[in-house]
Predict the structure.
Amino acid sequence: MDDQLTSDITKLTQLLASATLPDDLRTKAEDMLARLSRQAKHGSYSADFEQVQHYLDWITHLPWSTTTPDILDLKHVKQVLDSHHFGLEDLKHRFLEYMSVLILNETKGNTDFHAPVLLLVGLVGTGKTTIASSICEAMGRKFIRIPFGGMSSALDLRGQSRIQPDAEPGQIIKGLRRAGSRNPVILLDEIDRVADSSRGEIMGVLVELLDPEQNNAFSDHFIDYPFDLSQAVFIATANNTTHINTAVMDRLEPILMPSYTDEEKITIGRDYVLPAEIQKAALAKNTLKIEDTVWPKIVRPLGFDAGLRTLERTIQGIVRKTAKLVVEGRGKEFVITPDNVRDFLPSY
């Protein structure tokens, strides 16, 4: 065995020794290294080395036992949700109820409590993805978003077998490695938009993911070893439930994300979106003020969508025009009135 070969196998052995792994998975990996050493003596070292190296890299960087502590404070949770979202009281109350049960279980040392899987159903732009991100922030957990829009194979979730060339783990395992925690909030985004050709297979994997009786031993084809997802919090989103399998719906708690009225859009635009966009543009807080009588003109006629996307784009355009005026030296503070509002509205 040459020096380079010895060095490479030594590095893999050290990587394996320093990692926290389940005992039988460690034994499996050690057997793979031993077999690699034997093959190397007969000149077939390079054929399997990269595959073994790739596999060990994945299993040694997964959070088999790493968790993040929850923020078990209802006042903090409510403050985070209220600071990011106006309205949505039913959803906020539902989540505060869940957190209350989680707190009581944590107090008694009960680790078998499973969170209900919320399904946020609503039209585009109604805040489904952002509320999931806020729930994650409120709990103090890591966040994983898995987009289902156009997903064409169940292997995207479950990974490919290592016998396939260029095999990779699925999106679940990849997300867990990025998060570095086995109790993240996992957002299953737009589960109703998978490709028709593979809908049945993908829904089958979803049943395993969402069922607390099964997800404590989720199996990825590439890792080929069960991973415990029972402590993860799953949140799903969909535009509608028409294309969601009945078995999947049975494991979900649907919550309707309502369309916004003009009055709600005005409140959200004034108190949430505008301050955030001013900060993003690196402008001072007092650089831009919009009179109350102007807000209906901003919401209509540009805000006909059920969600907030059009309103957000309109406010972003107003802030950009203001930033341009500041950079050109044409003023430091601007007030938008009914008389000058058209000078600030974006043109598309």
